[in-house]
Known about the structure:
The complex is a heterodimer of chains A (507) and B (360). Chain A is an alpha/beta fold. Chain A has helices spanning 45-52, 75-81, 98-103, 116-129, 145-159, 175-190, 202-208, 231-239, 242-253, 301-308, 331-336, 346-350, 357-369, 377-391, 407-419, 437-452, 464-470, 494-503, and strands at residues 7-16, 19-29, 34-38, 60-65, 68-70, 83-86, 109-110, 113-114, 163-167, 194-198, 211-216, 219-225, 267-274, 278-285, 290-294, 316-321, 324-326, 339-342, 425-429, 456-460, 473-478, 481-487. Chain A folds into 2 domains: 1-82 and 191-240, Rossmann fold (3-Layer(aba) Sandwich), CATH 3.40.50; 268-503, Rossmann fold, CATH 3.40.50.300. Helices cover 37% and strands 24% of the residues of chain A. Chain B has 360 residues and is mainly alpha-helical. Chain B is built from 16 helices and 6 strands. Chain B has helices spanning 2-15, 19-35, 52-75, 83-100, 107-134, 139-158, 168-175, 183-200, 204-213, 215-220, 225-251, 263-273, 285-304, 312-327, 329-343, 356-359; strands at 43-45, 48-50, 162-164, 177-178, 181-182, 253-255. In chain B, strand 4 (177-178) and strand 5 (181-182) form a beta hairpin. In chain B, helix 4 crosses helix 11. Chain B is globular, with a radius of gyration of 22 Å. The interface between A and B is medium-sized, with 32 and 22 residues.
Amino acid sequence: MRQQPVLEVRGIRKEFPGVVALDGVDFRLFPGEVHALMGENGAGKSTLIKVLTGVYPADGGEVVLAGQRVRFAGPLQAQQAGISTVYQEVNLCPNLSVAENIFIGREPRRLGLIDWAEMRRRAAELVRTMELDIDVTAPLDNYSIAIQQLVAIVRAVDASARVLILDEPTSSLDREEVSRLFTVMRRLRDQGVAVLFVSHFLDQIYEICDRMTVLRNGRLEGEYLTSELNQVELVSRMIGAELAGLDQLAGGKRRERSAPTGDRAFLRAQGLARKGAVEPYDLAIRPGEVVGLAGLLGSGRTEAARLLFGADHKDRGTVRIDDAETDLRSPRDAIGHGIAFCSENRKTEGLVGELTVRENIVLALQAARGWARPLSRTTQDKLALRWIRALDIRPGDPEALVRNLSGGNQQKVLLARWLITDPKLLILDEPTRGIDIGAKAEIQKLVADLAEKGMAVLFISAELEEVLRLSHRVGVLRDRRMVAQLRNDDALTPERVLATIASGAEQ
Amino acid sequence: MTTASTTARAKALTRYRLFWPAVVLAVLLLANLAFTSDFFAVHIKDGHLYGSTVDILHFGAPLILVSLGMTLVIATGGIDLSVGSTVAIAGALACLHISEAADPASPGTVFGAIGIALGTAVLLGVANGVLVARLGVQPIIATLILMVAGRGVAQLITDGQIITVTSEPYKLIGGGYWLAMPFAILLSGLVALLTALLTRSTALGLLLESVGGNPVASRLVGIRAMRLVGLVYVFSALCAAVAGLMVSSNVSAADGNNAGLWIELDAILAVVIGGTSLNGGRFSIGGTVLGALIIQTLSTTVYTIGIPPETTLVFKAFVVITVCLIQSPNFRAEVARRGAGRRSVDRPRPATTTNREVGA
């Protein structure tokens, strides 16, 4: 590690309209190391990778590759200079063969024609060096995502082998597949390749990485040896100064919580799981209870909730609703049992943008009634107006197109849609993400009131402060496992939740 | 103040869904007046209405029917290419039944023929619906199967010949008159009205628009999309079958080769001109009827103003492109921007005046 960095970035700056995505970030990558780039969502990880690989031009600072200042005009140039990237979504062609995928764009040629035999021979050789036992003439989509991921790496490494950037390569892999990937990464490292690894899974970072760089809000937080920074310190550095502020909020404003009495759960999940989404977990939610789910992004929070709504099919486990075993095969089933689900992706999974506020609000109720029993226009108007007023949706025009509303107001429309169905369990996935502070407070208050009136709520949020303020209990997820369920008493602090996230065991 | 409010009102009008299709239809009709001075004249002969506009409605009736079904299919984000073949099959089956019946003119025979045609259409629609909604085949491919195969089936039914029929009651559907009006106009009007009622006074319209606008969200909101989508293909096939009865009745013959040939393309065009997006979502029954009338008027215009047959298709294409451009908000904005730019280069353009130049 005393040698020269193969890639060095000094004072890099990148602005987007209204946002400084990177503010004077320094970053070094040495040959023969696996280096983690850490940070929360929006910390600037992706932007940094895109600047390194020439997708975005930098607004300031310099990139030095092997001692020379470089300025890439595009990803192709970066690749030719020796920086290859493998993204989370495999961007190969699934309908082409493995060999074609490895050599696409740089096929071995003879007399101007593609030398297929040579291509197959070299592909087989490359695949063998990775200890992959696959048929290079078979279409890529014959193989699992993990193998496809490895093929993408084979391609990247063969094309140019100095710097390999892996952006969330493990997010859709299971444990065994991850260890296979790690074997390949270690081999490349030993061959002197510099590997930059981005992952939300802390365990994986600590298993494979030698050093790490932490970004926060577009600034460099620090560069650390993995062995010198424990997981708790890492998490608090990623979250940063907010931790101090969070302390006060949690201590001062925490709402009086009277835990609901009785142990009759509305919903009880046992050993519920889906491969590649979330490992078996147990969860019980009582009427009037708010259960929070905490965990880093990609820890399985949303996946766990989707199983409870029938949005994804479970592989194993049981769900009991009101003490009767229930098979939730579709959202419609779940809705029939009084479950409502506000997706974190308001635009793609929640609202129908070209319909009006009124239409979006009545949609779930109308779907439950079926097309032949329409809600009269008067009823629709009454419902829409009542909820526009109750939630202070702006503009207050029920005929406004929902896509023209701001994020916070769209979220309220989504809430209104489910509240008029009078659900017994309301699942809220990141209901306050990306909305302004006023709307956020209103939604938090609404959740508290609803629970008071006896509704069961599953509240998912990346903001610990919010989860702690609202929940009676907090389920902590990490690496797709429910690692703990903590009672939210006065002894539960954000630090304890963080420590649980970081260590994977109840603190 | 008054100009401002007038402009505001004009702008509100241009934003009304049916504004642009209505303008295009009006322009086309007026253009005919320039060539045929008595274009709008309607007179009664032998107790029947006659006139160019009546002809447009009469000959446009099958297209209106097919377009109605197509509208709902397109609203769900699909497309139905098989309607032309369904037109041919329905006509062939009905005419075959009548030609083989002992008494071709008895109402029983005619109702039997209608029943066979509509019943078969339901089966064809179910086939499309199962392929698209249940098996997840892309609509364009799923219905292409029937588009190609159905034409063959129609020829098998007619044995490659043209089946002619002589049946007064059957003639009524496409070629007869009722209350002085061509029956076809009344029938297509009735179906359009029923479609509008079916979609707008039940929740069907809303649910279809939701499925077409955002299929993922629709599933999460509990809409039984599979059934709905299957249903619209059945409806589309039924509309096409009625059109098929109309076409064969009008000429008292079934032609497996040419009946309804390319009508699916005209129907798609009518739906799009009527303001329904091919991406699915919002649809407009009124817009579709206007769109179908625009296309029929265009066909009529080609004959009345004496465009040479060899340039007919080019002329049609040119008009269609123009219509589509006029309807494109981007194109209108660009025209407005250029127009404003030419008049005053240094004045910064207010961001909200995009539609006014054309709308005023």
